[in-house]
Input
Amino acid sequence: MSANKKHIAIVIYPGFTALDALGPYELLKMLPDVEIRFVAHQVGLVTTDRGILTIMATHSFVQTPEPYLILVPGSEANTAKAMADPQLIKWLKHAHAHSVWTTSVCSGSLILAAAGILNGCPATSHWLALSALAKYGAKPQAEERIVRSGKIWTAAGVSAGLDLALSLMGEIAGAEQAEIAQLLLEYDPRPGFDSGHMSKASEAVKSQAIQEMTYRSQHTSIEYN
Amino acid sequence: MSANKKHIAIVIYPGFTALDALGPYELLKMLPDVEIRFVAHQVGLVTTDRGILTIMATHSFVQTPEPYLILVPGSEANTAKAMADPQLIKWLKHAHAHSVWTTSVCSGSLILAAAGILNGCPATSHWLALSALAKYGAKPQAEERIVRSGKIWTAAGVSAGLDLALSLMGEIAGAEQAEIAQLLLEYDPRPGFDSGHMSKASEAVKSQAIQEMTYRSQHTSIEYN
Output
């Protein structure tokens, strides 16, 4: 790929949630003149949250010091480990200082917060992580699916990454480019159920979802080298 | 994983479109008592459509002869190569004869059709592949996002895989389980643009999307071993 292309750094780490990263990837890959990089400690395999799906990091942090766009996905059980990863946090601080866009999906915003990027900043996260986000200095916006705060855009849980990436494409390349990408992905969602937000789900669904997420966040941690 | 678990075989092949497979994966992984397998000729790395993202096949076709559920993703440039892959087609015929569910996303339905699975069967595909689908004996349903024909469910382009998987979860495990998964993924889509279907996009967007897809289908083929 050409050296003139803008680097899009999709950060990956052991235990990240695949769709947080790969939903946005599927749209951002359609931007003109970009080079998408899956960035980790080193080039090599990284296993996602349930230990089933493994994807390849194409570049190291060192190889990608100043990307145009940063995207940080969340995790079921390993968000705290990523927040405590000194190499990741150091890279994030430097990269954010030079980025044009810094973005996160799901609990990825907690990782941005751990790098001091969200201090005093309106932001969102997976609904279960919103209270933690406040503890790290951000201003949680529970009702928003995408929160735009200057160059920092944060998305709600998992699938919200698609909406973040589509809106960001519109901002970067214009509405028509976003609409072309939307049509190519046939992104005309019809979920079939209407339980995708805490304000819409039944009490039974909410309580079981909290129980499941609490269990997963404690019991499916992926080894972190 | 337990031998008693139901196998979900997500077929992967060089040049497949990541979100076609990984959108459904993110939901189907939440089904109880299933083992998700990324199935290919052999265990090992498989590169997706633009040559950037590489994921690991966890099992071979031979290791997974009779899965409970089959999911076949589409591709930008390599659908025809997958349709002409004798090992994949042979596996698909046998697996479908024993499956409880046989499903596809995007141009994955053309691969089902090439295996003779969609003869006379109502089905859908990416909007650009609908006419090809008719040539292979299926009955294209241009207005439907998900087409259910007995145990065979086909989805429209790329992102439609999320809707297919969510509805299928409801069918397999009940509406409440689907709603819990929907809330966990915060799947309450708000795309920000409304150009995700051919009936909604402007003439300029449609014409550029067709041009882009035609180009991609001819120029970004991934090596197929």
